């Protein structure tokens, strides 16, 4: 089997949620609860001149919205683009489940007026049977600006292009200056003398969070191309656009969509099976019914991401925290976290993170989990690791054809670790997309 190595050309997407994901009380798949609150999201994509990235722009023509790329470059910061202003207004995230990125399964809970509750057959707040869950296919529970007591998730679109040749995109571990990770930020806690210290979190968000990429080769059509030609960022070397999603269908031939799921911290199970990796079987639609679904053909798993241990080159994170607060008038833990993560580090976590390598072959991991869906952490960590998962890819880029990609971020309700937690949760995410000019 070929390995992804020196031929990888990287385009890095760093999704920094600096003190943005905070649990108000608790969250869980199995009980009615509150949710993490997103106060703002900053996203950065960096790369080389081999793979370029661009923001997603839109224009409405005769009541229909058409998508086209903005200016392509080697680096893109979404926070600098008005088109992504909505990310700073997202109010909540609650556990959901999906196997394909198109059907989002939202749990339903009994309330006081349900017949089963009135008859004494169920209790308020208990989850209803799976067949009574809501199936969201229109992004109704995505990017909510008001708190949702049910499921909610985040998505955004962007464009990628390969001007030189055909490239196959995968998630990548990256080097010291980039890479993929999802890491819970430590909480600030007030001390008896009125100071503040950093405290470790349980790891629940890190264990249950998922990132997904939905793509297809559907042609955008002539109207979208016209919108692109009329834009200030048009480049005449790009004469075809691909990546149109079902809600925008206006006719023509539609290609099969590909969905890739990234599971960071696969060997972290704070609330689940200690010492065991437990296969997540998300909910999907099978035969018109909501059922657990195998996702081995689209799953990419990495090992635990953690804070670096202090060494000659990296000061202890605790010392950096105290340096950030020195001389500042800090009145609350929330202020301390904002001062440290937002102002002092400015969302730059990469120098302080040890990124987990990817399991090289998802098929090999599947083989170990065959039967009961579990494998010991010891056996999992003994599997071959690499800078990317060889047998799972996001999309193959056509030369000089901009590809629209839809990215999702959610908390997977089917994960064994999706259980109650009462500590605030903050986390940072970095996604690196790496391309190789060959595939299996």
How do the strands and helices of this protein lay out in sequence?
Layout: E1 9-16, E2 22-23, E3 36-37, E4 42-46, E5 52-61, E6 64-69, E7 75-77, E8 104-106, H1 115-118, E9 134-136, E10 154-161, E11 167-171, E12 181-185, E13 187-190, E14 196-199, H2 204-208, E15 209-215, H3 222-229, E16 258-263, E17 276-278, E18 283-286, E19 289-292, E20 299-301, E21 306-307, H4 317-325, H5 333-344, E22 353-354, E23 358-359, H6 362-369, E24 374-376, H7 377-382, E25 385-386, E26 395-397, E27 403-411, E28 426-436
Parallel strand pairs: 16-20
Antiparallel strand pairs: 1-4, 1-28, 2-3, 4-7, 5-6, 5-10, 8-9, 10-27, 11-26, 11-28, 12-28, 13-14, 15-16, 15-27, 17-24, 18-19, 21-22, 23-25
Helix pairs in contact: 4-5
- The 3D shape can be described as globular
The helix/strand class is alpha+beta
Give the radius of gyration: 22 Å
Strand content: 25-35%
Estimated helix fraction:
10-25%
How many β strands by DSSP? 28
Could you tell me the mean pLDDT? Answer: 81
Q: Major beta sheet, specifics?
A: 7 strands, antiparallel
Distance between the termini: 8 Å
Note the total helix count. 7
Unreliably modeled segments: 1-47
């Amino acid at each position: 089997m070929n390995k992804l190595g020196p031929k990888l050309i990287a385009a890095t997407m760093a999704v920094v949620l600096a003190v943005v994901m905070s649990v108000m009380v608790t969250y869980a798949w199995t009980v009615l609860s509150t949710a993490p609150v997103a106060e703002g999201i900053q996203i950065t994509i960096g790369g080389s001149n081999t793979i370029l990235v661009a923001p997603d722009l839109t224009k409405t023509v005769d009541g229909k919205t058409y998508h086209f790329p903005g200016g392509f470059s080697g680096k893109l910061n979404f926070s600098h683009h008005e088109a992504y202003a909505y990310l700073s207004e997202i109010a909540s995230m609650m556990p959901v489940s999906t196997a394909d990125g198109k059907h989002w399964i939202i749990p339903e809970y009994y309330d006081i007026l349900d017949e089963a509750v009135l008859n004494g057959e169920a209790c308020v707040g208990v989850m209803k049977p799976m067949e009574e869950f809501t199936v969201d296919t229109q992004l109704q529970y995505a990017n909510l600006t008001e708190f949702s007591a049910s499921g909610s998730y985040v998505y955004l679109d962007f464009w990628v292009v390969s001007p030189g040749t055909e490239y196959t995109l995968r998630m990548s571990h990256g080097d010291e200056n980039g890479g993929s990770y999802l890491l819970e930020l430590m909480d600030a806690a007030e001390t008896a003398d009125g100071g503040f210290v950093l405290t470790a979190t349980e790891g629940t968000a890190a264990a249950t969070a998922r990132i997904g990429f939905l793509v297809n080769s559907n042609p955008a059509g002539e109207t979208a191309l016209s919108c692109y030609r009329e834009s200030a960022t048009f480049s005449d070397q790009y004469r075809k656009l691909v990546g149109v999603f079902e809600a925008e269908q206006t006719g023509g031939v539609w290609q099969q969509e590909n969905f890739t799921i990234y599971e960071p911290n696969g060997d972290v199970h704070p609330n689940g099976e200690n010492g065991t990796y437990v296969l997540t079987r998300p909910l999907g639609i099978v035969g018109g019914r909501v059922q657990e679904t195998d996702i081995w053909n689209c799953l990419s798993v990495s090992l635990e991401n953690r804070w670096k241990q202090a060494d000659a080159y990296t000061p202890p994170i605790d010392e950096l925290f105290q340096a950030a607060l020195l001389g500042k008038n800090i009145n609350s833990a929330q202020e301390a976290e904002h001062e440290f993560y937002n102002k002092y580090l400015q969302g730059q976590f990469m120098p302080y993170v040890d990124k987990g390598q990817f399991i090289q072959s998802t098929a090999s991991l599947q083989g170990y989990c065959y039967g009961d869906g579990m494998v010991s952490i010891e056996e999992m960590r003994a599997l071959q690791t690499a800078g990317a998962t060889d047998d799972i890819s996001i999309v193959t880029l056509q030369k000089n054809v901009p590809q629209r990609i839809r990215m999702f971020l959610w908390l997977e309700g089917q994960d064994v670790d999706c259980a109650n937690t009462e500590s605030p949760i903050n986390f940072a995410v970095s996604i690196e997309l790496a391309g190789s000019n060959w595939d299996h």
